[in-house]
Amino acid sequence: MNLSSPSVVQKILSEHGFHFSKALGQNFLTDASVCPRMAEHALVRDGMCALEIGPGIGVLTKELALRAQKVVAVELDRRLFPVLEQTLGEFSNVKVVEGDAMKLPLAELIREEFGGQKVALCANLPYYITSPLIMRLLEEKLPVESITVMVQKEAAERLCAKVGSRDSGAVTVAVDYYAEPKILFGVGRGCFTPAPKVDSCVIQLTPRKQPKYPVEDEAFFFALVRGAFSQRRKTILNSASVGTGLSREVLQKAIADAGLLPTARIETLNAEDLVRFANAAYRYRKEGAK
Predict the structure, then answer these.
(1) Which among 1, 92, 155, 166 has most CB atoms closer than 10 A?
(2) Dihedral of CA 52/57/58/60: which sign?
(3) Residues 245, 228: contact at Cβ < 8 Å?
(4) What is the spatial distance between Cα 273 and Cα 277, in angstroms, rounded to a whole number?
(5) Element (H or E) spanning 147, and its range?
(6) Are the CB atoms for 132 and 169 separated by under 8 Å?
(7) pLDDT in tens, 83-95
(8) CA dihedral of 192, 196, 197, 200, whole degrees rounded to 10
(9) What is the number of other CB atoms lying within 10 angstroms of the CB of residue 251?
(10) Are strands 94-98 and 146-152 parallel, antiparallel or unpaired?
(11) Taking the CA of residue 15 as centre, how many other CA atoms within 13 Å lie in the half-sphere pointing to its CB?
C-alpha cells in the first residue's frame, strides 16, 4: 500500500472513520523521500532498534521497521490503532504502545522493550509539544544513541542555533548542554496531509556522555537562564534575578567575577560567559545561605 499517496491515505482514514485532530497537531507525513532519509540518519548501524513517538499512519514506522531489529511506537490517539494494524500488519518487528510521551516512563519502556540493545529515537513531532518533549528526552538522559526528529523550521533553527547567536534562547542553551545538535535537511509543508502553514526541518541531537558545561548546580543554572531569557531585551543585571531571586548587588559582583559588562544582555552571551556568570552567582547565593 502506497502510504506516500495523499489519496490512499485519505481512503484508509475514511474507511476507519478517522478525522484529523487540531488539538493533537496531526499532520501526517506522506512524502515518499523524507521518511527513508530520516530512518537512514537514525539507524546508522545494523541491529539497532528504534523508538518512535507519534507514528500517525505508520509511514515513518514502516521505514524504521525495514531497517531496525525492533520498533516500538508510542501513540496517544487510540483511533489510530486499527489504522496502524492495517498499514503495519506485514511487520512482525513493530509494537505499538498506547500512551502520552510526556507522561510515560520512557527510560523504563526502553529497558523493558529493548534490553541492552542500541536504540535510536525517531519521530515526526507535533509542533505544539516540540520543546517540552525534547527537553524531557534530554533531561531524563534516556539511553538512546540519537534523537532524530521532524520539527517546525523556526524551532529547528532555535534548537540548533549557536549559544549567543541571534536565534538562540533558553532551549538552545539546554540542548547544547545535553547534546550535539545539527539540522539534517528541510521539509516543505506540501509533504504533509493535511499541509501545515509552515515548513519543517529534520534535526538530530546526539546526547553527550557528559554535560558540556562545568556548572556548579544544574537547577540553578537553568533557572537563571530561563529567567533571564524571559526578559531577554533587558540587561543581565535586570533580568537574571527573575530565576534566581538574587539582589542587584549580588548580581553586580557575579557579573564582575565573570568578566562581563552589566549592560550585556543574556542573548549575547556565549556558553562560556553564561557558565562563568551562573557559577559566580551560585557561589554568592550559597555563601548568603550560610
Answers:
(1) 155
(2) negative
(3) no
(4) 6
(5) strand 146-152
(6) no
(7) 999 999 999 999 9
(8) -60
(9) 24
(10) unpaired
(11) 12
Q: Is the link from the previous residue into 194 a cis peptide, with omega within 30 of 0?
A: yes
Phi first, then psi, for residue 271 (nearest 5°) are -60, -45
As a residue count, the chain comes to 290
Q: What strands lie across the sheet with 200-207, from one edge to the other?
A: 94-98, 71-75, 49-53, 119-124, 146-152, 200-207, 179-187
Give CA 43 to chain center in angstroms: 18
- Residue-wise pLDDT tens digits, 104-135: 999 999 999 999 899 999 999 888 889 999 99
In the chain the domains, ranked by start, together with CATH numbers, are 6-207 (3.40.50.150), 218-289 (1.10.8.100)
pTM here is 0.89
C-alpha cell, 288: 548568603
Q: How far apart are CA 95 and CA 240, in angstroms?
A: 46
Quickly tell me which residue has 475514511 as its cell.
14
Quote the cell numbers at residue 109: 519502556
